[in-house]
Amino acid sequence: xxxxxxxxxxxxxxxxxxxxxxxxxxxxxxxxxxxxxxxxxxxxxxxxxxxxxxxxxxxxxxxxxxxxxxxxxxxxxxxxxxxxxxxxxxxxxxxxxxxxxxxxxxxxxxxxxxxxxxxxxxxxxxxxxxxxxxxxxxxxxxxxxxxxxxxxxxxxxxxxxxxxxxxxxxxxxxxxxxxxxxxxxxxxxxxxxxxxxxxxxxxxxxxxxxxxxxxxxxxxxxxxxxxxxxxxxxxxxxxxxxxxxxxxxxxxxxxxxxxxxxxxxxxxxxxxxxxxxxxxxxxxxxxxxxxxxxxxxxxxxxxxxxxxxxxxxxxxxxxxxxxxxxxxxxxxxxxxxxxxxxxx
Length: 344
Ligand code: TLP
Hints:
Elements: E1 5-6, H1 17-24, H2 37-50, E2 54-58, H3 61-72, E3 77-82, H4 86-89, H5 94-99, E4 102-106, H6 115-118, E5 131-138, H7 151-163, E6 167-171, H8 175-181, H9 186-190, E7 195-199, E8 210-214, H10 216-228, H11 237-249, H12 254-269, E9 274-276, E10 284-289, H13 296-305, E11 308-309, E12 311-314, E13 317-321, H14 328-343
């Protein structure tokens, strides 16, 4: 069988036999009745990991963000975020549709917005103005090429929010990558936010599922929103078991994905006509294809003909994401194919 190296996203991993066994053997109950022991165990484990009181298992990262936004806000509120964040760009305008709220996107640096930058955008109380209610940040930052949001800036944002009576939501879809790449714990990062989300279906390699953690009041509200948004699941322990397995077995290997991404970054750097856009901090490489060399479409076709799947995130700009189904031989293959591109 020809080699397929799927670098489109870290969401493409397939559960292996051990994870499937854990899923098959999971104790289950009806989670809408609050009866599923595996879901309860996962929620408790994640609340403890984040240093929060409560946590809620949800089907996707998008739902984790959306139930958190719904928990924090009322119709007409405003949320400050970075212009390239997932919530603003890739959640189908759900904040407006589901919660009736408005986003106020600021121009971050590789996805990082600062407290200093946010401060003037906090609205004064005035009958004409929306109420600023929440600051949303993303760590690691997807469109910032897996950029780790610096902890000291998160702490400054936390302080600013508290001074103004605002809340902070952390979209930590890939927070496990930030933890793996730094000596900062889940709890330290989560302490800067009132709610924190994380996905099991990205670098951790589970097929489905995300978590959102926070105070018991916020999680109670998020729980109600999950039902409203159609995310109440029944024997969800089968999925929670995959997340448990991922936490036990895949957290500690994320640094391998970072090493693999770093190798790909170096290959990009030595290929004529390709220009890396950001440094490689975790498991993503974003680079530009020089149109005078080859169109991005042609470049993607050459890769695909050679079994390397990837995708343009903007015209001419390509993202490669490493994960547990990409190994050292796969990177060698990427190197060989890039060498032929260079020669053609
Ligand atoms: N990101 C996906 C796509 O939606 C772009 C990807 O391939 O990277 N927060 C962040 C930071 C994310 O990157 C994503 C998914 C989500 C939330 C949403 O997660 P899902 O796809 O589970 O709804």
